[in-house]
Design brief:
alpha+beta; 3-stranded antiparallel beta sheet; 20 helices; 7 strands
């Protein structure tokens, strides 16, 4: 057995310094690895020899990439080329589009931990028009409210948690709680920044989508990304232009739907509703566990599960779980059960929900008719009236802008504004969401949403979700199921043995 480290992420500043010291090099490109790996299936040489050849003939490697990826259709080869992008000065609204792509990694500036400044993005669609001043004036009022709320909330949090306030090391934590509630009044136009890691295949998809997007900010972001990567890897980022599929499909669907449906009347607002789920999910997962661990057909496994006593079915699940720790994923068999939720959620909460990229998430536009999510702390300190006044003014500006420029209108809405989201998860993914988002350290809005989802899930699939909950409660939940502590060491979870 041999393993070679073929490459790893290196800061571009370091690469430039190397070139300044030793001269320009053509082989500093992810294309050589992509081209080398593309040849593995047809070249008898060892991989490290193929890579050496690819580094020595970069132009040949680029031609090879073009032929193998685009003529032969082996697009997955482009996934071996990876880019790290610093993306700054992008609105929170545009960030939602950027983070729709599943096969990427994102680390975004958090409004929960950083005091916001007054930087915001003014949509190109209203620049130079009378709406620009209306927009800017409203942003100014929202930002003034943010700082006013932040001051009051900080005092409230320190007073409410006086035990923690006595420890200077806890002050950042307390200030963070105040910031996360004050930010609900700030606009989706607020600037943010993110570090993104993306492979070339997904980057090409992103570029096509962004080139086809109606928003100028999204189009400009796509061009800026293309400018950064096209010279480095021209052979694997080719199909990046606007296209009918991405440009026209949803507008045409929207037009058709408006003709087919009635828009009069209003529906009751249910924040979380389980609308579809796999029937007999407990039996299906039990049969899947049996299937993996036997030589039986799936049909025979299902029949066997049906014949088992309730106690023996329970043993299948308990055996599958008994060696788990709070950081472990559910077994893959739990992916055979699915749940679909209709969710009405704030922008602040959606910013966290959308990170669960293995879920299927589609959403409508933000809708002021769905009301807003107001933090309880805002109500506790008597600021709800002030908060709603700013929201009402924001809604009027939104309506005014929407008449002239529907694309620009959502930028003025706040983190408190809501939209309908349809989210489909399998049982394994819902366990992951619950472990992370129901934890005591999670933000309250996503905690509430996650808890409501798991409550519905437990009603539909009681056996499957017997062990679900936030990671801070894992030992307690495990004890309830097994009557004993999980096999966890002090090194993994300090203090675990004290909980008895």
């Amino acid at each position: 057995m041999k393993v070679y480290l073929a490459g790893y992420n290196v800061d571009t500043t370091v690469l430039r310094q190397m070139e300044e010291a030793s001269g320009k090099r053509e082989d500093i490109t992810p294309e050589v690895i992509s081209a080398a790996y593309a040849r593995i299936s047809r070249d008898p040489r060892s991989i490290n020899e193929i890579r050496e050849d690819a580094r020595g003939e970069v132009e040949k490697s680029r031609k090879s990439n073009s032929a193998i990826i685009f003529k032969m259709g082996h697009h997955s080869v482009a996934e071996h080329a990876v880019f790290n992008l610093d993306i700054l000065g992008v609105s929170r609204f545009a960030m939602e589009e950027l983070e729709k792509f599943r096969l990427c990694s994102y680390t975004e500036k958090s409004q929960r931990y950083i005091t916001l400044d007054k930087d915001h993005v003014t949509p190109e669609e209203i620049k130079g028009t009378s709406l620009e001043k209306t927009f800017s004036d409203m942003i100014h009022k929202q930002n003034e409210a943010y700082f006013r709320f932040l001051e009051v909330l900080t005092g409230h949090v320190f007073e409410k948690h006086s035990d923690l306030a006595g420890n200077p090391k806890k002050h950042n934590l307390l200030e963070g709680w105040a910031k996360e509630d004050a930010r609900y009044i700030t606009a989706l136009a607020t600037e943010s920044q993110v570090g993104q890691t993306i492979n070339a295949r997904t980057a090409e998809l992103l570029l096509r989508r962004f080139a086809s997007h109606p928003s100028s900010e999204i189009k400009n972001l796509g061009r800026a990304i293309y400018d950064q990567i096209s010279d480095v890897a021209p052979s694997i980022v080719i199909f990046n232009q606007a296209n009918d599929r991405d440009e026209k499909t949803y507008p045409e669907l929207k037009k058709l739907v408006s003709e087919l449906t009635e828009t009069s009347g209003s529906e009751p607002i249910e924040e979380v509703r389980l609308v579809e789920y796999t029937l007999d999910a407990d039996d299906i997962i039990a049969a899947s566990l049996l299937h993996t661990s036997s030589g039986l057909s799936y049909e025979k496994c299902k029949a066997t599960v049906k014949s088992l006593s309730e106690e023996d079915r329970g043993k299948l699940f308990k055996t599958a779980w008994q060696n788990m720790q709070f950081y472990d994923s559910m077994l893959r068999e739990f992916e055979y059960a699915n749940l679909t939720f209709n969710v009405v959620t704030s922008s602040a909460c959606f910013g966290q929900l959308k990170r669960h990229r293995m879920s299927t998430i589609t959403s409508q536009e933000y809708d002021p008719n769905l009301d807003v999510t107001i933090p309880e702390a805002i109500k506790d300190v008597g600021l709800e009236g002030d908060f709603r006044r700013i929201v009402e003014e924001t809604n009027k500006v939104y309506d005014q802008i929407k008449k002239e420029s529907p694309i620009a209108a959502p930028y003025i809405l706040t983190n408190a504004h809501r939209k309908r989201v349809l989210i489909r998860v399998n049982a394994r993914e819902l366990y992951h969401i619950s472990r992370l988002r129901e934890d005591a350290h999670a933000q309250w809005d996503i905690q509430n949403l996650s808890r409501a989802m798991t409550d519905e899930a437990k009603k539909a699939m009681p056996r499957t979700f017997e062990l679900i909950g936030g990671k801070d409660r894992y030992i307690e939940i495990y004890q309830n199921v097994y009557g004993q502590l999980p096999k966890v060491t002090e090194a993994v979870l300090p203090g675990a043995r004290k909980i008895q």
